[in-house]
Amino acid sequence: MSDSESPLSTPPDSEDEVIPESLVKSYLVKPPSPPPAGRKQRKKEPPHVPTFADLPEIAFIVAFQSRFHAAFRGVPNLGCQDLETGVINMVPSEQVEQLLCRLLSLVLNRKKNVERGHHNRALEEAIQANQSQWPLHWEGRTPLAGGKKFDDLDAKQRLVLLRYLILWALSSSDTIRAIIAENYKTNRRNDDLNVALSVQPWGRDGEKRRYWLIEGRDDTPFRLYRESNPLLKNVNWISIAGAIDELKAVAADLEEHGNKHSTELAKKIHSAIPRFEEGENKRKRREYRASRKAYFSNQAAAYSYEGRTRGKRIKYTFSDDDERGSNTGTSEQDGVSTRRSGRTSRAPSIAPEAPRFTASGRQIKKPGAGPYGEMRINGTQGTSTGAATPASVGSENGDSFTGYGRGLEGGHAEY
Q1: Pick from 177, 217, 184: which is nearest to 198 by CA?
Q2: Lowest-pLDDT range of 23-27, 105-109, 212-216
Q3: Do residues 84 and 58 touch, judged by C-beta distance below 8 A?
Q4: What whole-number percentage of the chain has pLDDT above 70?
Q5: Long-range contacts of 62-67 (CB under 8 A, 24+ apart)
Q6: Can you spell out the DSSP letters for 293-341?
Q7: Average pLDDT of 46-63?
Q8: Cα torsion angle, 94, 99, 100, 102, sign
Q9: What are phi and psi of 207, to 5 degrees?
Q10: DSSP codes, 332-361
Q11: In angstroms, rounded to a whole number, what is the distance separating the alpha carbons of residues 279 and 257?
Q12: Helix crossing, 155-172 with 56-67: angle to 10°?
């Protein structure tokens, strides 16, 4: 067979007939493959509205107190919600002030803890001692400039100041260093999974977003945060759940993703819900007992015993006459004053009787009485012939009666 009869096409005669390589590749590109059948298309989430709960300082402070709980003995355990309500009020709560005082004690290495109400000078001292570690947004000026105190700061400034006190305690506190050295005695791994002080993410989803569960000790409220992909330039930190119902909704949304990491995180959430429910019941019972104790203590203070009555007689009956008598100080029946001006006086306040006279003008004097109420006869106790025994009173038969029962004169038997 000759060359002219070859089944192959003849080469082009000139360069103008050559097909461009880019055009060939465009025809060879494969169309995009459809998504796998097992993976579902996720719904686009609405834009998140920033809230006060999204501040990362809240999670940082609660996690630090929970991990270094040995350095906070005697300080109430705080959850994220407790810290939020404690700093957002005009006056910080008692729990927040106790946390502030303990952090100042750690930063300054005080043997005696800083007391509430006396922490302003210690706070100024701690800020000035760590001036080299001030953040840049302070612009070289302390937040307490102008005579401000911790109570004068707003909620976000209080959280920022607490966060930097923690950072200063990590670098200068002897107590914190001892706790860290104790927990890192074992061989350290790169991810610190074998260290109890480390805070690890709870899991991640198919978009490489990490989920952080932050909770305090002693059944305090929890909060679930979500962090965007840490490899991105801008990383967002938002709060997505602070109650059990919200947590269940997050688990249901993760199950719809259909990938391995989301399914594992959803299982962790479902397994932790019974523990959260039990902790919520314990917290409600504790709050109820505290409220009832406060109620009864206030009632006991209102009806407490005020001291001795000093001879006042208790009246078990009440009438309008008694009320009028107490208002005017006299009784309408006998006209005698019922108000006792002298509490220590034993004699009744009765008006003295007017003197009586005979027809001849001689005053009739009432026989005198002894110290025990006995009648005095002839200026002595008893008769003139009787013995000087107490309360001897003459009788019509000439006998004398001894008031104490020691004997009878005139032959009668002893009484």
Answers
A1: 184
A2: 23-27
A3: yes
A4: 65
A5: 62/214, 62/215, 62/216, 63/199, 63/214, 64/166, 65/99, 65/216, 66/215, 66/216, 66/217, 67/196, 67/197, 67/199
A6: HHHHHHHHHHT---S--TTPPPP----HHHHHHHHHSB-TTT--B---S
A7: 92
A8: positive
A9: -95, 15
A10: TTT--B---S-TT--S---PPPPPEE-TTS
A11: 29
A12: 40
List the beta bridge partners of residue 312: none
Run of H or E residues at 120 = helix 120-129
User: How many Cβ atoms from other residues are within 10 Å of residue 141's Cβ?
Assistant: 9
Is-contact 390 407, C-beta < 8 A? no
Cβ–Cβ under 8 Å, residues 120 and 183: no
Q: What Cα–Cα distance (Å) separates residue 151 from each residue in 66, 113, 389? A: 25, 20, 82
Both tokens of 297, joined, read 């203590």
Tokens, residue 321: 């006459």
Specify the length of the chain in residues: 415
Distances (CA, A) of 176 to 11, 104, 352: 83, 13, 85
The closest of 66, 64, 95 to 82, measured between CA atoms, is: 95
pLDDT digits (tens, 9 = 90+) for 87-136: 998 999 999 999 999 999 999 999 999 998 889 999 999 999 999 999 99
Run of H or E residues at 227 = strand 222-227
Tokens 């003459």 sit at which residue?
A: 394
Q: Which helix (H) or strand (E) holds 32?
A: none
pTM, entire model: 0.63
Residue bearing tokens 């962090």: 227
The sign of the torsion formed by the CA atoms of 110, 116, 121, 125 equals positive
The pair of three-digit structure tokens given for residue 138, joined into one six-digit string: 């302070």
Q: What is the DSSP letter of 150?
A: G
Average pLDDT in the 330-334 region?
Answer: 45
241-267 per-position pLDDT tens digit: 999 999 999 999 999 887 899 999 999
pLDDT in tens, 303-330: 555 555 566 666 666 555 555 555 444 4
Element (H, E) at 135: none
Q: What is the DSSP letter of 213?
A: E
* Spatial separation of the C-alpha atoms in residues 371 and 400, rounded to whole Å: 19
Write down the pLDDT at residue 243. 93
- So what's the pLDDT on residue 40? 56
262, containing H or E segment: helix 260-302
